[in-house]
Amino acid sequence: MIDARKLLLLVAARALIGDATPVDVPKETAIRGTVGADALRARIVQQRRQLLAPPPKLTVSEWADRYRVVPSYSADAGPWITDRTPHLREIMDCFSDPSVNRVVFKKCARIGATEAGLNIIGYFIHQDPSRIMVVQPTVDDAKEFSKEQLGATISDTPVLAERVASGIKESSNTILLKSFPGGSIVMGGANSPRFFRRRTVRVIVLEEVNGYSSDIKAKGEGDQLKLAETRSATMTYRRKTYINSTPTTKGNCRITKEFESGDQRHRFVPCPSCNHFQTLVWEQLKYKDLPEPAYECIACKYHITASEKDAMLAKGEWRATRNTASTDTRSYTINALYSTFVPWTTLVREWIEAQDDKEALQTFTNLSLGEAWEDRELQDVQEALKARAKQYEPDGAAWRVPRAASALFCGVDKQHMELHAVVRAYGPGEQSWLIDRVVFRGDTTQPAVWAELDVWHREKRWRHEGGALLGIQGMCVDSSDDPNPVYEWTRPRLSSHVYAIKGGADPNASILPKKYTKTHLKSRLYSIGTQVVKKRLLARARMIAPIPYTLDAPGRGFMHFNERANEQYFAEFFSNVFERRAYRDKQVTMYVLPPGRKDESLDCEVYAYVALQLVAFNSTFNLEEEWVRVIEEGEKMQHPQPESEPPKPEPTNTGGWMSSVRRSGKWMP
Ligand SMILES: [Zn+2]
What we know:
seven-stranded mixed β-sheet; 27 strands; binds zinc ion; alpha/beta
């Protein structure tokens, strides 16, 4: 605080030096270098500045360059230098620019987005005290962010440590709440709807919004972005929102939608050879037959080398690619080619390693290219499956189940007014064939529809190509939401391998639980690991068929579909998308059903596969021995004399895969 004595001293000092013009003395270092009157003069000027001047009007990047210290968690620990991440300058400076209220950053990993967020928070603590809200995907993410990143930044950055620790009762600073003179930071998880209630804030930082759970929205609480932004509505032109995330799947990607709603800024950098400004795209990074990866200029074809990269990135500029009049959102996107931390050689290695693995390729697309994943193959896969389905059933064939199959398994998905059933034949090596698909209509809380399912289950038989008649060997019925009718129906049929199941929530659970749950109706309930099965079946459906396609050639794990798999069936079967989601306060990658889509056929296929596993688990059944039995039975039916030749154990064209099939225990987790 300025007292009268200091003011008098300052007036005297002005008279002494005869000049009151402030001299720009950069920090205390300059003072040490001057002597005598100069030193006095400099000290007086500095003192005057400290006492009388309003806080310096800095941009966020200037503030960070002057004050921010990066803690030891980073490889780049020490004083912050914006020049090391030139792409962050404009994004950060939006928050000291009164004309910008809303910033969206669709980003790749390893580009400094979280550090930019910390600079923005630090700026508001020190320069423009305000109430700040930070939303992470989960409460645990928020705690981790608070302890490891924000907490360390505050304690290592002196101007922040002074403010957040001083003049405040200790009790007002917890892990998820930090107070400072003139403001506060409250942190929480997007999985907690209560967090969004009854708060008014000015600055909102929404981190990794694609990881926000969709459960809250499903429960009618509303979308978290809207919930959060309502909290600053009364701040009108003073409010500031920062939304960032890496993208996920095209068509279902929150950050892509937000980016598209803004002015769509891309980073343009000049070619060191021809000076043509261009955005860096993955296709232009060349590495084949080159000693090291090089970026090919789109204009002059010059190969830009890694040694020229940093100088080129420093000259970059953000350019809006969409008319700005229609939006108040500034949106930015960037990929890892611009990263000053990740060499191009690393990206090329990751790209090559991801080539044979669809999930790794999706991860590379999301995390390194900062792009939403589009499954370009999916349409081709579905076309191929439909074409194959047409060749499945020979005209006028007397049989329905191909020769290489051993037994039939059924999955039943219960809806309120329908039971969907899929019958799939499995053979040695878990090669499988879609056999039937039936819908039983009727209120599933009433007995009528269950009686219909019962008759079908007891009486329906399908002719095997070898001659035998096959019924359903095992069946799983989904019991999630309203399980009682399912327990009642399955309990007396346990000895026929009819099981009540429900998909467990844990995305890492093994297919079968260690033990079933006893339900109150004395039935058994198996909580199953649907994620593992979905992953397995969706990968198998994509296996490449041999040419020419036959019903028994391809072997282990191969899935065949007949014409009962129509357009709708495949749409449901491939409806799930593979995304990062919050589960028990952890980020995990899992298959999820996008809102507004259906996946009954996939669920039925999953349950039919689980039925096979349960039958093998609860009996001595295995597909190889069963196949021998079915062939023998078929031959007996065709040649009724008791002393017939023993059958050959392999159908034609099996390529030896049957002999490698082991007992069922091998498939169990
Ligand atoms: Zn060029």
